[in-house]
Amino acid sequence: MGPPSGSHIWKSWAFFLLLWTTCAGSFLADDDRVLKGQPCLPHSQPWQAGLFQGEQLLCGGVLVAPQWVLTAAHCQKPNYTVRLGEHSLQNPDNSKQEIKVDRFIPHPCHSSSGNNKHDLMLLRLQNSAKVNNKVKPIDLPSYCPQPKQDCTVSGWGTTTSPRENFPNTLYCANLYIWSQDHCEKAYPDKISDGMVCAGNSNGADTCQGDSGGPLVCKGVLQGITSWGADPCGTVDKPGVYTSVCRYTNWIKKTIHAN
Questions:
Q1: Which of 24, 184, 196, 253 lies deepest, with the highest CB count within 10 Å?
Q2: 248-257 and 6-24 are packed helices; what angle lies between their axes, rounded to 10 degrees?
């Protein structure tokens, strides 16, 4: 094989420069963290992805471009496949697409040390998804969510906690954004600028198996499920999500450089 083209060399240098500058100017994944939700209207979340090893669901994800899925960095495992277009895991219909992962790109400032910061990872798929009304990317935010803004979370994670009960169909729950001040009071010394909290008065929450899935507000991706209280669904302990608006530039630049 001959040497790489100038274009490829530029992209490689651009990518490593991006890693350095992102970490130089920086701003929690304790568990795989939809509880007290209900089955989603089939295919109402066409950006929803499932990350699988064989038949085992490991995490959720979000289609952000035809060949790119966004998920949580703590979800990284070898030999993933990504499933798109699914509602029922046991009875898939002809909308299902299953694509192998070609490359994992966790946020360069994420650490597995347990502080849960920068809990974000891009997955480049081997092939582009076939975009249709049941499989399509979601818009990235150009603004950050406001306190009390209504949002939706979705996933195939456990619907009960601490006892686990994994549903067959995709579940949704309606939550609202907490102010950063209330979020910090709920989790003292654990909240960074790159996180956002969401919950409701009924204790609806994401839980085991939902990690990496979407928090969607007004049709825009505002959060990636990251961590929360154990057991899930504690009313005064909201779920904590990676705040996508803080990382939009990194997401776009990384996709462009790869």
A1: 196
A2: 160
Return the bridge partners of 61, or none: 49
Please report the DSSP string for 5-28 in residue order: PHHHHHHHHHHHHHHHHHHHT---
Report cis status (omega within 30 of 0) of the bond before 39: no
Structure letter (DSSP) for residue 162: S
DSSP state of 94: T
Residues 103 and 255 sit within 8 Å (Cβ to Cβ) = no
**Model pTM score:** 0.83
Q: Are 144 and 217 in contact (CB under 8 A)?
A: no
Residue 254 and residue 224 in contact, taking contact as beta carbons nearer than 8 Å: no
Cα gap 186→237, rounded to integer Å: 6
Residue 146 has pLDDT above 70, yes or no: yes
What are the tokens at 125? 């798929």
Are the CB atoms for 84 and 97 separated by under 8 Å?
yes
Q: Is 82 helix (H, G, I), strand (E, B) or coil?
A: strand
- Beta carbons within 8 Å of 59's beta carbon, 6+ residues apart: 32, 50, 51, 71, 72, 75, 209, 210, 211, 212, 213
User: How far apart are the C-alpha atoms of 187 and 190, rounded to whole Å?
Assistant: 6
Q: pLDDT tens-digit profile of 191-231?
A: 999 999 998 866 554 565 579 999 999 999 999 999 987 76
DSSP code per residue over 166-202: --SB-EEEEEEEPPHHHHHHHSTTT--TTEEEEE-TT
Q: Which residues are catalytic?
A: 74, 119, 211
